UniProtKB/TrEMBL annotation:
Family per similarity comment: Belongs to the methylmalonyl-CoA epimerase family.
Protein's UniProt name: Methylmalonyl-CoA epimerase
Keywords: Metal-binding
Native source organism of the sequence: Psychroflexus planctonicus
InterPro entries: Glyas_Bleomycin-R_OHBP_Dase (IPR029068), MeMalonyl-CoA_epimerase (IPR017515), MMCE/EMCE_epimerase (IPR051785), VOC_core (IPR037523)
PROSITE patterns xref list: VOC
Length: 134
């Protein structure tokens, strides 16, 4: 794993949270992107080498809607940058981690992504991210 690529934060109201994080980080978001396959709208801020990804739900079955209903707003996942996501999926599967998708899927901000079940990683939802090949 190379670095923390982003922290995902589940929010109820993306516009209100955007204002809060613009003030907190003293910078404007650089991208808003809807990823309908995940049921989310994302908003990205750069913070040094990493990013903050604000996520709001686009429908009631979204993982973000379920998370907020159960746990309230807050840190939803930690995403690590990897060079070769398929190799990492293989490695982690053979180490006994439960992958939520065993083939990479399309994420936000030009990434291929895969998730580990939070029960595999001490209650933390982990996302693997690889830059999409050009
Ligand atoms: C925009 C794309 C992308 C990017 O490019 O960055 C994203 O970040 S998308 C982010 C949204 N997508 C996902 O989260 C996909 C992966 N998540 C899932 O598949 C599911 O959310 C889940 C983790 C498998 C949970 O789903 P489910 O079992 O249907 O939900 P429950 O509400 O029943 O929860 C079961 C159990 O798990 C706990 N839980 C749920 N979410 C989290 C979480 N984010 N972190 C830690 N724990 C989580 C939940 O509290 C339940 O625990 P118990 O009550 O103790 O059983
Ligand atoms: Co993410």
């Amino acid at each position: 794993m190379n670095k923390i690529e982003h922290l995902g934060i589940a929010v109820k109201d993306l516009e209100a949270a955007s204002k809060t994080y613009q003030t907190l980080l003293n910078t404007a978001p650089y991208k808003e992107e809807q990823v309908e396959s995940e049921g989310v709208t994302t908003l990205f801020f750069k913070t040094g080498e990493s990013k903050i990804e604000l996520l709001s739900a686009t429908n009631e079955n979204s993982p973000i809607a379920k998370f907020i209903a159960k746990r309230g707003e807050g840190i939803h996942h930690i995403a690590f940058a990897v060079d070769d996501i398929e190799a990492e999926i293989k490695r982690l599967t053979s180490e006994g981690f439960q992958l939520l998708n065993s083939t990479p899927k399309s994420g936000a901000d030009n990434k291929l992504i895969a998730f580990l079940h939070p029960k595999s990683s001490n209650g933390v939802l982990v996302e693997l991210c690889q830059e999409k090949p050009k």
